[in-house]
Amino acid sequence: MKKTFLLIGLLIQFALHAQDTKVVSSTWTSFTQSINVESKTEKKFKIEASVKAVIADEHAWAGVWARVDKKDGGYGFFDNMGDRPINTDTWQTYAVEGTFDATSKSINFGGLCEYNGKFYFDDFKLYIENDKGVLEPVKITNGDFEKKVENGTVPRWSFGVSKGKSIKVKEFDVTSTTDKAEGKLALLVEGKGIVFKDSYKIKPMEDVSPQIGTLIAMLENLKDRVENQVKNMSQYELDYLHDDKANRIGSLIMHLAAAEKYYQVYTFENRGFTEEESKMWQTALDLDQGGRDELRNHDAQYYLDIFNEVRARTIAELKKRDDAWLMEVHENSGMNNFFGWFHVMEHQSSHLGQILFLKKRIPPEPEVNLEQPIKN
Q: What is d(CA 170, CA 329) in angstroms, rounded to the nearest whole number?
């Protein structure tokens, strides 16, 4: 029985360790090391690395990055090579140079890549200015990546941009490779299946009347903003209730879907909810105590799938109509269809602000204490 209890304990420890790595979805990823620094005067530092990028789409790029964290919790120097992206498919050495001073606590550094492609990193080096004004090398553990990657874990490096917070971005695979700049191995980070969304342009669409196309672009931009804020939240975060008058973030996503569903039937079919539709959507639409009690215990994808399904019908129906339809007025309300869908957008924008407010006030999830004696 003692062996059984020992095995149970090991499995529990493994499970808790696995929870330390948060799995998220993103168009980019990065890996990090951190070194504490202390100086009474301003000093220079330099990060060097060998990088090559075999890009698979026009938006893909790689970079070497560095950030100085301050003692007061703020940030100092930062550079991620965003103004000089790496998209060359041959090994070359790149450098990021910065400074730190008496207010600085640490230097964080590493590599990053975005969108689809194969991104190779090798031979990281750190130099810090000494008291004579000379940049001298500081040892980096596994800066040459000779310690092999196992199960997506890079020895002595963490994924993410914060010390002690490891992130696994599901769109990227991480392995060791013999295609190297120096030594025997290098790090390969491969991005696959990432779809580029040009969210920073509001413009008409092909084969759709101008105002309808612009309306769809604005609706999609707002939905993307909501999705980007919630898609990587845990169930604990989605279910967190700030106070007895607030709403859970999960229920707010359902509320957005329900409101859009209502304006679908009102503007496309000139009616309200049927009894069956009310059973499905009214709780989310009202967002009262029923919403606080019932809309919980789901992950982010559950809510987003519902929202995306509603949005798919919105777009399909809008594409069947033209700009003249937008100006049609509903006699019972005096509202034209354009105002109805403008309201859907401003409604989503309003609740996005609420989501951002609540998100910043979620306390850390309580740790599970499993250090309890097991009785035989």
A: 46
Q: How far apart are CA 260 and CA 258, in angstroms?
A: 5
Paired residues of 129 in beta bridges: 135
Residue 79 CA to residue 77 CA, distance in Å, equals: 7
Half-sphere exposure of 68 (CA within 13 A, CB side): 24
Please name every residue paired with 109 in a beta bridge, in sequence order, or none if there are none.
33, 66
Q: Taking the complete model, does pTM exceed 0.70, yes or no? A: no
Angle between helices 249-269 and 210-230 (to 10 degrees): 160
| CB neighbourhood size of 323 (10 A) | 15
Q: How many CA atoms lie within 13 A of 349 on its CB side?
A: 9
> Tell me: the pLDDT tens digits for 309-354?
999 999 999 999 999 999 999 999 999 999 999 999 999 999 999 9
Listed residue (127, 132, 124) closest to 156, CA to CA: 124
Q: Other CB atoms closer than 10 Å to residue 119's CB: what's the count?
A: 27
Q: How many CB atoms lie within 10 A of CB 15?
A: 11
Give the residue among 250, 329, 349 at the shortest CA–CA distance from 291: 250
